Amino acid sequence: MKKTLFLLFSLSTLFLVSCSNDNSDDQYAEYIVARPLVMSKAEFATSVTIIAPQPIEESGKVYAYGDFIFINDKYRGIHIINNSNPQQPLKVGFINIPGNIDISIKNDYLFADSMMDLVVLDISDINNIKLVNRLEDVLYNNVFFPMEADLFEYEDYDYDTEIIVGWDTTTERRLRSEVEQRNGGVVFMDGLMASESADSGTGQGGSLARFKIVDQYLYAVDSHNINIFDISDLDSPKDLEDVFAGFDIETIFNQGNYLFLGSMSGMYIYDITTPATPTFVSEFQHGTACDPVVVDGNYAYVTLRGGNKCGATESGLFIVDITNIENPELAESYPLDGPYGLGIKDEKLFVCDGSSGLKVYDKSDIHDLQELNHFEDIVTFDVIPLETHLIMVGDGVLYQYEYLDSNIKLLSQIGLD
Questions:
Q1: Do you know which InterPro entries this protein is assigned to (predicted)?
Q2: What's the rounded Cα separation, in Å, for the pair 83 and 90?
Q3: Among 8, 151, 155, 301, which residue is least crowded by beta carbons within 10 Å?
Q4: What is the pTM of this model?
């Protein structure tokens, strides 16, 4: 089904990096300029290919399925890691999917976004992966922008023949007046882009995931909507009606009959008792910040990352009491430096605190979290607590940790470059 894209993107707030003390240079400042990476529409339609292992350019989200780990390379595709021996993981291939951010897998069928399209691959033979379906224009609001950018240069982009599959950002010295004139209002990007509860047989994503499979349905959130697909016929998904869910939606998590959506302004809860039509239940509001969420029992754990594009809210961990699902309330909060993903295994809480490393807590008493370990001097992005061990993706590195009674220890690490 064709979906309507309407994106109002305000660029009125400028990020000034530096300015010279020389009065003659007061007219200039450093700005982040974004230029689109494009390919022809004809090339895009046949762009999904399986190739040999590649160096990673920008670590994205991580997904575990069977003996394999799949790591997104932002906007480029998926790195495949054979993890049958977690002490010696092995890179075995790369799925080239331009514009890819998320995946989800069920019974050997991999679902992935490729900009506005949903692609389906048969991975039953990891050495002979096959593209079995491509649903065009079903993720039409699946638009991503480098939110840190001050300027977008896309004058040479041909709307009729090209597709934007990513962005290249550079820091450039520009006239203040030029930037203020161009960003004096709002920019309408319409047309710029043609654009966890675990099931048996379903893989497991991290807390930053936008895709989630629950039973016979795939839920894919974009910045405003829950996109819903009936996947009872795995190689032939049916695109159902979207559900408007709010603004600045970033992540999705499932527990029981509920979806928990993390957004830059709060956490939204939706009932999926009728799975084809999720219904709003309640929301928990916080200040503007990037916001992944995981749920365990009667508590939702939310990391807030402030600063830069994520907003002014101070970074921290919010623990929300959802005993009354219709009235979630803040139970406790803890300061953090710049957190991204998080995960839970039994009474252990794992928090990726960005450049401050991986932090492990005992959450037996949510009002008095006890730090069990702190792996410093690494950049951390997202974690998946598996039954037997923990996997974490950082800046171009895949880490795996062994569970101990009251701690964890490093099992292996592999560079992805």
A1: LVIVD, Quino_amine_DH_bsu
A2: 7
A3: 155
A4: 0.81
